[in-house]
Amino acid sequence: MQHKQPNSAISMLIEKLKPVDSSEFAELAPGRITAEDIQADRDSPAADVSAMDGFAFRIAELEEHGQLPVQGECKAGCPPVPLQPRTASRIYTGAIVPQGADLVLKREDASESESVLKLKKPTQQLTTGDNIRKAGENAKQGNLVLAAGSCINSANAATIANFGPSKIKLVRPLRVAIVTTGDEVGKFETSSPDPWQLRNSNLNSLLTFCAGQPWIRIASHTHCTDKKQAIIDNFQNGLSNADAVLVTGGVSVGDYDFVPDAIGKVGAEILFHGLPIRPGKPILGAATQEGKLILGLPGNPVSALIGCCRIGMPVLRYLAGFKEWTPRRPLIRLATPDTKTIPLTWMRLVSLNEKGDAELCPSLGSGDLVSLGQSTGFIEIPPNECGSGPWPYFAWA
Questions:
Q1: 45 cis-preceded (ω within 30 degrees of 0)
Q2: Three-state DSSP class for 74?
Q3: N or C: which end of the chain has fewer CB within 10 A?
Q4: Structural domains in the chain?
Q5: Secondary structure E strands in 167-283
Q6: Is the pLDDT of residue 341 over 90?
């Protein structure tokens, strides 16, 4: 099957996949995805309000008299107070500007003696509208304030709260099934495995990866031996109650690598099998006729996690209904560059130093869990290139 670069492989997948199309009304939930546009239920601000503590008055009256008596005050959270002719009202930040006033003078630009306002600055420096936030300048009633497909965070949670809905329409969480494979893999929680056995690090890795995304729910996680029927059964069970299946191991071309055959048996189409990347070259992407994902990750733990992050994350975001499903990646410089190059896209484990630059993590290959645990993420270097970059950075957290 023709090799593709990572972004091309992702595009091939999403053309065949169907995002979650069901939603639910729920309380504000960080990390969840909005299922509908949120519109302003009123102007924002709802009225002309003061941007400063100070004095509200008509500029023409000040020019005529040179000074103004101060009568009344306008406080935030209170109805507007009428402005008496040829007077100034004391006003506080956020208070509604009294009708007829056309500017707010900052408190520090005025002196007040026996309730008479005097300017500390020339009248010519005053401008109509000074220090007044106009009604609707942020948004008019009915304007779009947050688009469907937005991930709820601390910033847009404030936006949502400002426009009233106590419950909002959220995309149903994406259901993910995890299947790990391998005769050599087991739990071994109370004893050490034999030298030919391994603990299931891939399961821990992928569970933690998914747990960090509030828009994902784990539908199931199972382990099966290297038997074709066992893999088929696990795929069928996973697809019956999930939108995506992540499988580790069994994707290469060995005698016991049954995942490609099993994918065909459950009615899915393999869109790519193998990418020109290191690590993770045997990675496999498939889609069912219903638009569900099967992502086959290599069994080596470094390859599995990098493949899930680099290929799986944007595809899962697409399925989950993100408006921007390709996460933006920062470009960072490599503080410890070398001159090594390979004719593949190279994902190299790094850790960030105190300056925010990347340092290469010494690694002995795709099974080096010590190096993986000491890394903060990886950088992506194009084929046949080297040096300090800057390179796209993919963080684990």
A1: yes
A2: strand
A3: C
A4: 6-22+172-320 (3.40.980.10), 49-133 (2.170.190.11), 331-395 (2.40.340.10)
A5: 167-171, 174-181, 185-186, 198-199, 216-224, 244-248, 268-273, 277-278
A6: yes
At 245-294, the pLDDT tens digits run 999 998 987 777 899 999 999 999 999 999 999 999 999 999 999 999 99
DSSP letter at 151 equals: B
Using H for helix, E for strand and C for coil, what is the string for 104-137?
EEEHHHEEEECCEEEECCCHHHCCCCCCEECCCC
Q: How far is CA 201 from CA 52, 88, 305, 395, in A?
A: 57, 72, 10, 19
Give the pairing of strands 174-181 and 244-248: parallel
Helix (H) and strand (E) counts in the chain: 9, 26
Q: What confidence score (pLDDT) does residue 257 get?
A: 84
How much of the chain exceeds pLDDT 90, in percent?
79
Cα-based angle 108, 110, 116 (whole degrees, multiple of 5): 145
**What is the model's pTM?**
0.88
Task: Classify residue 249 as left (phi > 0), alpha (psi -120 to 50) or beta.
Answer: left
Would you state the pLDDT for residue 64? 67
Average pLDDT, the chain: 92
Predicted pLDDT at 25 = 92
Burial of 13 (0-12, 13-18, 19+ CB in 10 A): buried
Cα distance between residue 71 and residue 69, in whole Å: 6
User: Average pLDDT for residues 27-52, to the nearest whole number?
Assistant: 94
Can you tell me whether residue 207 is helix, strand or coil? helix
DSSP-H helix ranges across 244-394: 259-265, 301-307, 313-320, 369-374
Rounded-to-integer distance, Cα 276 and Cα 4, Å: 7
- pLDDT, position 2: 41
Question: Using alpha carbons only, what angle is made at residue 57 by residues 54 and 63, rounded to the nearest 5 degrees?
Answer: 115
294-320 pLDDT, tens digit per residue, is: 999 999 999 999 999 999 999 999 999
